[in-house]
Amino acid sequence: MLASNIRKYRLAMGLSQAKLAERVDTSAHYVSMLETKSKFPSPEMVERIAEALGIDSPDLFRPDVDPDDAIKRLRKAVLKDVGDAVGRFIEGQVRGLDPAGDD
């Protein structure tokens, strides 16, 4: 998440890896390694990157949630829950009709 967010915010600001590196006093190679998950930055570097990107450092760790995807996942989960509940209800009704009285 961190790697993709660094890249997303960097691109949104129109910065190259070299320009971001310049702003945080590191190398473009290091920024590349962060974005490809080859390196994990120190807390101090996270703060410097966030400041250079004009965001709060926790924003670098937030998932990028597409509202449409979230709604689709919620809808799917609700439909599954309803389907499961209906299935249990029908199963209970069928058991109630069992002439052997296995309840």
What does this protein structure show overall?
By secondary structure, the protein is an all-alpha fold. The chain has two domains: 60 residues, lambda repressor-like DNA-binding domains (434 Repressor (Amino-terminal Domain)), CATH 1.10.260; 39 residues. It is 66% helix and 0% strand. Helix 2 crosses helix 3. The longest helix is centred in the last third of the chain and has 30 residues. It is rod-shaped and about 80 Å long. The chain starts with a helix and ends in a 7-residue tail after the last helix. The mean pLDDT is 88.
Q: Could you name the CATH topology of the largest domain? A: 434 Repressor (Amino-terminal Domain)
Approximate helicity band? 55-70%
Radius of gyration: 25 Å
Which structural category fits the helices and strands?
Answer: mainly alpha
Work out the helix count: 5
Strand content: under 5%
| Oligomeric grouping of the chains | single chain
CATH architecture of the largest domain: Orthogonal Bundle
Shape: rod-shaped
The end-to-end span amounts to 51 Å
Average residue pLDDT: 88
